Amino acid sequence: MTSENQQHRHRWIASSSHRVSEGLVVYQRCDCGEWRVTSTPVHPVVHPEIARIRKSA
Questions:
Q1: How far is CA 9 from CA 6, 20, 30, 42, in A?
Q2: How far is it, in rounded angstroms, from Cα 33 to Cα 14?
Q3: How many Å apart are CA 20 and CA 42, to the nearest integer?
Q4: 3-state SS of the chain?
Q5: How are beta strands 13-20 and 35-41 bridged, if at all?
Q6: Each residue's pLDDT tens digit, 46-56
Q7: How far is residue 12 CA from its own chain's centroid?
Q8: Which of 7, 20, 22, 28 has a CA-to-CA distance to 43 between 20 and 30 Å?
Q9: Structure-model confidence comparison of residues 2 and 32, the more confident one
Q10: 38 and 53 in contact (C-beta within 8 Å)?
Q11: How far apart are CA 30 and CA 36, in angstroms?
C-alpha cells in the first residue's frame, strides 16, 4: 500500500486538446486524479519532448 505522501510515476492520458494562436494546448490527467496542461508552440521545435507544463491547482 502506498501513502498519500509517496511519489509515483504519473501515466498521463490526454483528455482534450485545442489549437490556439500560440500553438496546441493539451489537458492531461493521471489515474491518481492529478491534472496538468501542456502547450506546444505553433512551429516545430528542436526538442519536441520539452514542453511548458503548468499544473492545475
A1: 10, 29, 10, 29
A2: 13
A3: 9
A4: CCCCCCCCCCCCEEEEEEEECCEEEEEEECCCCCEEEEEEECCCCCCCCCCEEEECC
A5: unpaired
A6: 655 655 666 66
A7: 7
A8: 28
A9: 32
A10: yes
A11: 9
CA distances from 49 to 4, 7, 16, 26 (A): 29, 22, 18, 14
- Cell numbers at 9, concatenated: 510515476
Chain centroid, CA 37 distance in Å: 4
Instruction: Answer whether 0.70 is exceeded by the pTM.
Output: no
Q: Are 56 and 29 in contact (CB under 8 A)?
A: no
Q: Write the CA distances from 43 to 9, 28, 29, 40, integer angstroms.
A: 29, 21, 25, 8
**What residues pair up with 41 in beta bridges, in sequence order?**
23
